[in-house]
Amino acid sequence: MLLILTQNPEEIRKELLLETGSFDFLSQDDNLSLSSARIRTTGSWNCIEWKISKKLEPKELMELREKFAKKNSDLLQVDRLLDSKKKSLFAFDMDSTLIQQEVIDELARLAGVYDQVASVTKEAMEGNLDFHEALKKRCLYLKGLPTSIFEELYPNLTLNVGVEKLLLGLNEKESRTAVFSGGFTDILETFQKEHRIGEVRANVLEKENGVLTGFVSGEIVDKIKKCKFLKEIRDREKIDSSQVVAVGDGANDALMLNEAGIGIGFHAKDGLKKLITNWVDFAPMDVLLFLFS
């Protein structure tokens, strides 16, 4: 099934019906299916549920996706919608996914060491440091900061568009929610309380006499841990894999997204897009409620 996320559903449908012949991977039956496809609406966004005769290959999916992008519309391919009557799990990355910022960068700004931290990030992106080394090196620049800095920072963090509505909707549907972050527990636990998140996992910054020591305590939450946490909750709660959705923005979320029944990149970086099937570039995050039947 294809889900077309758009603000102009009838215009999109009309254009597609006129042009389906130009896509040799679509059949006449697919054309008929599109003409009667159900359209659902939330706010100004709509979802066209298009049942096609086969699962599209990545190249075919990209060809359609590029067409929709010209109309500021997104395309998802799913095997089936979530069953609202069964248990479901939504697992999220935090930084640049649920919120617009990267927490460690914002802490560095407050501490006056942003340039130093940014240079370490650049090293990591160039492949000269792995995630663990980069995190440890950046955290050293936070040494001596008062623990109250998290209370100072949290009100300045901005939710991505549609996040609040999505989380409210998931709570109404009694879906399990979890956030796995390479950031820090001090921020995640506050976010958990405010938005009624079921479970969170993040790195623990060591503290001593009311200040940060610059060290991370315990295991570091990386891409392998994120995937592990998802599987642990899924198996413990006896949730079908097809009822699990994972959302992230970076390449370190790929394992988690591909382990989920439905993995979705949100404002995904190119490094992640190369590793997954589905992503949302234009729509607000609450369109993910369309994943429920």
Main attributes of the structure:
293 residues, alpha/beta, four-stranded antiparallel β-sheet, 12 helices, 11 strands
Describe the structure.
By secondary structure, the chain is an alpha/beta fold. 38% of the residues lie in helices and 22% in strands. It has helices spanning 9-19, 28-35, 58-69, 103-111, 114-125, 131-140, 149-153, 163-172, 185-195, 223-236, 254-259, 270-273; strands at residues 2-6, 38-42, 45-50, 74-77, 89-92, 176-184, 199-208, 211-217, 244-248, 262-266, 278-280. The strands form two sheets. The chain has a seven-stranded mixed sheet, sandwiched between helices. It has a four-stranded antiparallel sheet with strand order 2-3-1-4. α4 runs antiparallel to α5 (114-125) and α5 (114-125) packs antiparallel against α6 (131-140). It is elongated and about 70 Å long. The chain starts with a strand and ends in a 13-residue tail after the last strand.
